[in-house]
Design goal:
heterodimer; A: alpha+beta; 3-stranded antiparallel sheet; 13 helices; globular; B: alpha+beta; Alpha-Beta Plaits; two-stranded antiparallel sheet; 4 strands; 11% strand; binds iron/sulfur cluster
Amino acid sequence: MKRTLTIPMGSQHIALLEPLHFRFTCENEKIVGVDADVGYVHRGIELACASKFKFRQVSFVVGRVCGLCSISHTTAYSQAAERLLGLDISKKAKYLRILVIELDRLHSHLLCLAHTAENTGFEALFMQIMRDREASMELLELVTGNRVQFDYSCVGGVTRDITTDIEKELTRKLAKLKTDLEELYEVFRTNWSLSLRYKGVGALNAQQIKELNAVGPLARAAGVAIDVRSDTEDLLPWKEVGYKMMVEQTGDVYARNIVRFREMFNSFEIIENVLRGMPQGDLVTETKANPQGEAVSRLEAPRGELFYYIKGNNTPVLERVKIKAPTFSNVAAFIEIFKGQEYASVPPILASLDPCLSCTAR
Amino acid sequence: MTTFLKALGNLFRTPATVPYPFAPTYLPDTYRGLIKHDASLCIWCRKCETACPPGAIVFSQAMDGKQAYHYNTHVCIYCGECVRACPKAGALIQTNEMAAPVTAEAKINHSWNGIVKEALAGREAYAAERRKAAAAVAAAKAAEKAAAEKKD
Ligand code: SF4
Ligand code: SF4
């Protein structure tokens, strides 16, 4: 006999890391309807940026939008502000930005993979990934001065330089992390029990991805080759430092995990190239001008395209700051993914979507 | 299988975690910590106060014009903007010391808001006094000039 049940999940739930609320309508074990509420952590950051803070200070405010991709927010904002001011920042600052963005991608992807393992019930794997991830956190702290709030990009460049000691430490710890990751990659690809929960679960095809406007690893796992890094060479020299597009075809949880792994291996190459080819130059390009006009900027955060729109009126305080985070673009796809799945598959699917609600609700 | 064996082996390894607060955690020299101010080097330009995003620095001013530096370790976000804004090398430095956790007894918000309010009021009073004095000087000068013109 068919019975329809409505199961609420969140905003606080053991399998949820973020304040997110779902209502699943289920027929026995199968999900037939999904409703989502993503607005729990609204903090009014956009308004604060356009009223309380001067434009130079805004990069430190938007860094607090998200704890996982702090550097993406500060960099995307700084790039937009630099466009308004007509600033041409040094190549060295661009390289340093890339370095921190890629280190951040490592720790963010590892966190997502760890939770995907945990929500599948593989607690030991979760702990192992989190232990290995610590290397990337320590490196971020070493380079930027803080584990979470990097405050690394500012309008006009970056706030600090790296020394030869830091460079050595980076090389040493990353080499170790890379071997650890190779081992984990093997587990994710070949472990039979994991494959039961990952393969063919929570899949979207390329057509659906395009219709729902999904971005980031979610889209790339389904064979849609979109990545801001491949078309914003004017903002940061991605191709020069060895960026490669990582695409998988099946679009399920498994493919998303694999895309993340392959991107991380690419991150190692990028960081290596950045360190090897570090140019000379100023850290910060100064200006006394105030922002005037409108500008947008895009950046590939770990979860996908991050979009900033800012408008200035020739005063130190901006008129408008608009942030569109990758998870916001993906919410429609989230809802679609769950339809037709078993209720028990919800935790791993959810973790593999890597939602970031702090970014979404701002 | 190897994963399973490895997981089993982990039972006999030492913990990967640090027993903080009984043992120190990883803290690099480059850690962005508390801000230190050196009153003997400071030129009292207040550039750091203007630059600080959350408003963790405020300068008070006594009626004799002497300024004093106030810093709230808990409002500070350790971004280092003040140090970059400071024109006098060494007047402000960022240490790698962590701030101590705040306790309820410290009444950090109330007392800090009071300090800021008093500081701004004090500065306003001093500025008003200066304006008054300047106006008096100007008036005296004008009177002198007028008297001199009369003589001619
Ligand atoms: S470090 Fe940042 S928040 Fe702290 S006092 Fe300096 S400018 Fe203000
Ligand atoms: S910016 Fe430097 S010199 Fe100026 S008031 Fe602050 S500490 Fe003193």
